[in-house]
Amino acid sequence: MLMNSFSSFPMREELTRAISDLGFETPTPIQLKVIPQLLSEPIDIIGLAQTGTGKTAAYGLPLLHHVDVTAKHVQCLVLSPTRELCMQIQEEMTKYGTHMRGLRITAVYGGMPIGGQIRDLRANPQVIVATPGRLIDLLERKAISLDKVEYVVLDEADEMLNMGFREDIDLILKNTPSREHTWLFSATMSNEVRGIAKRFMKDWKEFSVAAANTTNENIDHQYFVTAHHNRFESLRRLLDFTPGIYGIIFTRTKQDAQEVSEKLMKMGYHVSPLHGDMDQKMRSKVMERFKSKALQCIVATDVAARGIDVNDITHVINYELPDDPEVYTHRSGRTARAGKSGICMSIVSPKQISNIRQIERLVKQKFHKSDIPDGAEVIRKKLFFYLEQIANAEPQADFAKLYRDSMHEAFAEVDKDELIRKLIWLQLRDTIDAYQDSMDLNAGYESKDRGERGRGGRSSVRMFINLGEKDGLNSQKLLQFITESTDVEPGMIDRITVRDMSSFFNVPGDAAEFIVEQLSSKKFKGRKVRLDEAEQPRAFGGGGESRGGNRPKPQGARYSGDVKSYGGGGAGYNSGGGYKGKRK
Ligand code: AMP
User: Fold this and answer.
1) If you measure from the C-alpha of residue 310 to the centroid of ligand 1, how many angstroms do you get, rounded to a whole number?
2) pLDDT category of residue 569 using cuts at 50, 70 and 90
3) Which of 109, 366, 461, 482 can bridge 131 by disulfide, Cβ–Cβ 3.0-4.6 Å?
4) Residue whose CA is closest, atom 19 of ligand 1?
5) Ligand 1, atom nearest to 24 Cα
């Protein structure tokens, strides 16, 4: 038996089994610290950990371990700031307790008719997950008794205090006469949080893990600079450039969430708004569709998104930066959970670059200025996404059998090449149309032709490197590789763009040769690194980063004669992109 594994915890067998069913293999840092303590000696504790660190299981498993399922009264109370979080905690704990016969966990929160919740409470749950306001309402109606509650968990205590629940929390805690154990979880430690501990807890122990959101190195922070009036178009382009996206787009206002979402829906994106003007039923429905991946993104305000706990979010997009840099960390922390990596993109106006610097200091990570891709890059990205989807598709056996003859008959006369081109054309036609004459959205260049703009000035040189996403890189990791392999400082490199098989970045002109020299002798995961000065981007589709003049052009399809709209990206998959250096 591995030390530090779930099975090494002296926990009831039903819980160990559920954890194994869920596929949890290793306890997270906060779980490692807290669970053994709370199982063997459930003293009062303060856990400093954010959502995404596995804190629900850190208190949930010990809580369920101590529950007496044969007793039919409320023994454990979990207070949480929002209804979404309540629902998630209940869901999560129900999974842990799935093998515990007789266990009932009920969630009560505002925004839903109280009648149904009163009925739920009559089923004698042992565990209640509640928002403070609704719980007080239920106490006043005498629909619930907390007289025999022994365990109280305050989850996201700082958030509850921020939301003005201090008096409610005090009142609730005063109404738990049998309370023996109080476990407080908070992302931050403030005087107010400490105040609760002083008033209601005995000799507590503190456990903290690095705040996931502020130091999560798995998050690649990127920003895109565009004029304010190009914000929506930039968002759209970023979405198109990220075909497999499963993300949250944050807006500052409910109205923006609604409008941005409506515009995207009209354009055919699978998105939905999530904000406080929607009733609870609609919001739950949106969350259900999002969780089942029927939606690729939700467009949300900060309040509505608080506590959203979805594990595999690939991207967070800040349509607008929040006013408060702290809020940025809450947003970005929605991605890169449970050890995964994620990207947080911010669309900013030139004036807001100073806000980015401020957030960088808070997050203690460098943000990467990235280019808003041009039309050819979008098309190329979509093409390869589609090719990969085709390659990985597994048609149902029945389907293939049933229609085999008809399918083959229909294309008996068409050769394979043509068929491929037709299929791909059908798939990409809309994108190609949409991006035919797309403009450069990068701030300062929107009205100019690419050829004129001389981005970065003479002092900055665009470099190509033959490593990309397929090598497991993102801009953060690429930057790390470059700076660790050369004497170049991270601050000298910017505008990193990572592609499938290659990447681009800018360096000061006088450092270019030096970098080429130092990196060209290096290997990355066994692959020899090649880098060179990139060809300067020309007019749309004509050359530059996503294109390669020396690549074989796709043949025959409608777009092949006019590489303009297609960007000739096909061969870029394994040819490494357009750069003027000689390729070996
Ligand atoms: P939390 O911080 O409690 O919101 O948890 C974040 C997510 O991580 C939840 O969806 C959990 O199901 C998941 N999770 C918690 N603990 C583990 C673990 N030890 N291994 C894998 N996933 C986990």
Assistant:
1) 10
2) very low
3) 109
4) 27
5) 20
Q: Which fold has domain 6-208?
A: Rossmann fold (3.40.50)
Helices (H), ranges, 189-253: 191-200, 212-215, 231-241
Q: How far is the CA of 15 from the centre of ligand 1 (A)?
A: 15
Take atom 15 of ligand 1 and give the residue whose Cα is closest: 54
Which tens digit of pLDDT belongs to each residue from 280-293? 888 889 999 999 99
Look at ligand 1, atom 1, and give the residue with the nearest C-alpha: 54
The model's pTM: 0.52
Nearest CA to ligand 1 atom 5: 54
**Domain definitions of the chain by residue range:** 6-208, 219-373, 376-435, 450-575
Q: What is the mean pLDDT of residues 187-209?
A: 89
- Give 348's DSSP letter: E
* SS3 call for 515: helix
Which CATH fold topology does 219-373 show? Rossmann fold (3.40.50)
Radius of gyration of the chain (CA): 27
- Chain position carrying tokens 């947003």: 331
Q: Name the phi and psi angles at 407, rounded to 5.
A: -65, -45
Of residues 257, 275, 283, 258, the one with CA closest to residue 112: 283
Closest C-alpha residue for ligand 1 atom 18: 24
Token pair in block for residue 414? 């068409």
Tell me the pLDDT band of 307, cut-offs 50, 70 and 90.
low
Q: Which atom of ligand 1 is nearest to the CA of 27?
A: 19
- Tokens (6 digits) for 278: 């929607």
- Ligand 1 centre to CA of 95 (Å) is 12
For the segment(s) 450-575, the CATH number from 3.30.70.330, 3.40.630.30, 3.40.50.720, 3.20.20.100 is 3.30.70.330
Residue 89 to residues 82, 109, 111, 365, Cα–Cα distance (Å): 11, 12, 17, 30
> What does the mean pLDDT of the chain come to?
83
The pLDDT tens digits of the residues spanning 140-194 come to 999 999 999 999 999 999 888 888 899 999 999 999 999 999 999 998 788 889 9
Of ligand 1's listed atoms, the one at least distance from the Cα of 52 is 2
**Beta strands across the sheet bearing 127-130:** 105-108, 127-130, 76-79, 151-154, 181-186, 45-48, 205-208
The ligand 1 site (C-beta within 6 Å) comprises 24, 26-28, 31, 51-57, 92, 309, 311, 337-338
The alpha carbon of 286 and the centre of ligand 1 are apart by a number of angstroms equal to 22
Measure 52 CA to ligand 1 centroid, in angstroms.
6
Q: Report how far residue 225's alpha carbon sits from residue 6's, in angstroms, rounded to the nearest whole number.
A: 46
For a ligand 1 pocket test, name from 92, 155, 340 the mutation site with the most ligand atoms within 8 angstroms of its C-beta. 92
User: Considering only CA atoms, which of 580, 575, 424 is closest in space to residue 500?
Assistant: 575
From the CA of 323, how far away is ligand 1's center (Å)?
29
Task: Answer yes or no: are the C-beta atoms of 378 and 241 closer than 8 Å.
Answer: yes
What does the pLDDT look like over 232-245, one tens digit per residue? 999 999 999 998 89
